[in-house]
Write a structure and sequence with these properties.
alpha+beta, about 90 residues, 4 strands, single chain, about 20% strand, Alpha-Beta Plaits, 3 helices
């Protein structure tokens, strides 16, 4: 197999792979936070709803997280947050 053929197989998989993170939040299509969806997903995940300095909310999962960013995005969409979810502090494990 030629190198470029191998890259065509590997690169897309690495871009769309799912990972676990410590923090998540749901967004609307316009990029704004969806507070209701974020709070609902936190309940489903058994995680903790945290507050930014500006009073907006996000989920803290840490080691107790039962899903990855792909699951989180799917649940956000199911709850009406149709934009991309935000995830940060990727788990190293």
């Amino acid at each position: 197999m030629k190198l470029y053929q191998l890259l065509l197989l590997v690169v897309p998989a690495s871009v769309i792979s799912c990972s676990t993170y410590d923090y998540y939040l749901c967004n609307n299509e316009d990029g704004s936070f969806n507070e209701t969806a974020t709070a609902d997903v936190c309940k489903v995940a058994g995680s903790f709803l945290q507050t930014f300095d500006d009073e907006r909310h996000y989920c803290f999962c840490g080691d107790s997280c039962v899903f990855d960013n792909c699951d989180f995005r799917d649940i956000c969409k199911h709850k009406g947050a149709l934009g991309p979810s935000n995830c940060w502090a990727k788990d190293k494990s």
